[in-house]
Design goal:
It holds the Pfam family ABC_tran. One of its GO terms (molecular function) is ATP hydrolysis activity. Keywords: ATP-binding, Nucleotide-binding, Transport. There is one protein chain. The chain is built from 11 helices and 9 strands. By secondary structure, the chain is an alpha/beta fold. The strands form 3 sheets. Strands 7-8-6-9 form a 4-stranded antiparallel sheet, with no helix packed on it. It has a 3-stranded parallel sheet with strand order 1-2-3, covered by helices on one side. A two-stranded antiparallel sheet has the order 4-5. Helix content is 39%, strand content 19%. It folds into 2 domains: 117 residues, 3-Layer(aba) Sandwich (Rossmann fold); 59 residues, Lrp/AsnC effector binding domain/regulation of amino acid metabolism (RAM) domain (Alpha-Beta Plaits), CATH 3.30.70.920.
């Protein structure tokens, strides 16, 4: 992300965004960045910060739209930023990014410090921005957010690009399924071929297989009914973990 923004010099190759170099003034006019750490002046009021960002934007976002993003009361907007909670500061920093109505957004760990409800509100805003055609680059350690929101995934490990794919394609490429059955099927499961990673969880047994058809046939022969079994694709987290483990071998 630092290379895309022109903050880090690349050792080889070339970076072009919208046919523009990362440091070009034209690109800066359509880009907004939310860094990992909040960088808000602590002794300014929320309303003062908003007015300042509106004053330097060519086509600032309407007050009504800003209020929809922030969901702050008038009392909160009159507060100094140092009085806000961590999640509120993060949401404010995000709202300030959007005041200039950027066409390209860079978000570094955007939901850090947000509680569950604020995080849900944040992703609703992201979905609306996507619908408007805004291009969004974001880094996140919340795999579920990547899985449900991203259209394209780049897997980076120790500075090396391991994958350039989509959530669906990444899971489908593995052809591995996770099966969950009642615990009373444990003795049967232990004798099945083509399975691994057997785990007992409370009153269920879970395992992985790449031979779903043959395993399901064997289970049916032992009296397993469709109502007894839960089948899931391998999670994106499992796939990412396997990919990084393989790279380290």
């Amino acid at each position: 992300m630092s290379c895309l923004l022109g903050d880090l010099k690349i050792s080889k190759g070339k970076i072009v965004i919208n046919a523009l170099a990362p440091k070009s003034q034209q690109l800066k006019e359509i880009v907004a960045v939310l860094p990992q750490e909040n960088r808000l002046p602590q002794k300014l009021r929320v309303s003062e910060l908003i007015e300042f960002f509106k004053s330097i934007a060519k086509t600032p976002l309407a007050d009504q739209e800003i209020d929809k993003i922030l969901q702050f009361s008038e009392e909160q907007k009159a507060q100094l930023t140092e009085k806000l909670s961590g999640g509120q500061k993060r949401l404010l920093a995000f709202a300030l990014c959007l005041i200039s109505q950027p066409k390209i957004l860079f978000l570094d760990e955007p939901t850090a410090a947000m509680d569950t409800s604020t995080r849900q509100h944040f992703w609703q805003i992201i979905q609306s921005l996507k619908a408007k055609g805004v291009t969004i680059f974001y880094s996140s350690h919340y795999i579920e957010e990547v899985e449900h929101t991203a259209e394209r995934i780049l897997v980076l490990h120790h500075g090396k690009l391991l994958r350039d794919t989509t959530p669906f394609a990444m899971r489908e490429a593995e052809h591995e399924k996770q099966l969950t059955l009642p615990k009373n099927f444990l003795s049967i499961v232990e004798k099945l071929p083509h399975i691994d990673n057997i785990e007992l969880k409370n009153d269920t047994v879970t395992f992985m297989t790449k031979e779903i058809d043959s395993v399901w046939q064997k289970l049916q022969e032992q009296g397993c009914q469709i109502a007894d079994i839960e089948i899931q694709n391998k999670t994106l987290l499992n796939t990412l973990f396997d990919q990084t483990q393989e790279d380290e071998k």
